[in-house]
Inverse folding.
């Protein structure tokens, strides 16, 4: 699979890239919503792993833009939580708005790969998936 990972946290980008690449996936990264949307305009991906909290445009809004522009592109939402809402609340919102899976940070390799395996098993299903949390 070709996967776009979007997060401002370089350590998360590096960890996700390491895990996904070791599993045979082709990974590209972006550190902002604007960069992610630009990359998506130029390159076809099989999935997007997206942080829910981003500075330039929040991840929920970014996910909604992705779902509108590329409705069949699965989005996996991730978060460690914010100042007002915890990760479970943020990820529940992302799930309700169309995320195919949700993952709490720090990312657990097994949960991340399991969520992607679920996409491989049901690639045609554009509906939101189960919350994975960890």
């Amino acid at each position: 699979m070709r996967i776009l990972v979007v997060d401002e946290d370089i350590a998360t980008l590096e960890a996700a890239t390491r895990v996904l690449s070791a599993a045979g996936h082709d990974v590209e990264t972006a550190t902002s919503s604007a960069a992610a949307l630009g990359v998506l305009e130029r390159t076809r991906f099989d999935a997007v792993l997206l942080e829910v909290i981003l500075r330039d445009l929040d991840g929920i809004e970014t996910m909604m833009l992705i779902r509108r522009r590329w409705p069949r592109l699965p989005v996996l939402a991730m978060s460690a939580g914010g100042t007002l809402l915890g990760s479970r609340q943020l990820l529940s919102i992302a799930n309700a708005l169309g995320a195919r899976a949700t993952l709490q940070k720090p990312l657990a390799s097994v949960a991340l790969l399991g969520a992607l395996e679920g996409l491989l098993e049901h690639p045609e299903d554009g509906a939101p998936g189960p919350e994975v949390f960890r």
About this structure: Residues 127-134 have pLDDT under 50 and may be disordered. The domain at 2-133 is CATH 3.40.50.2300 (Rossmann fold). Residues 16 and 23 are 11 Å apart (CA to CA). The chain has one domain: 2-133.
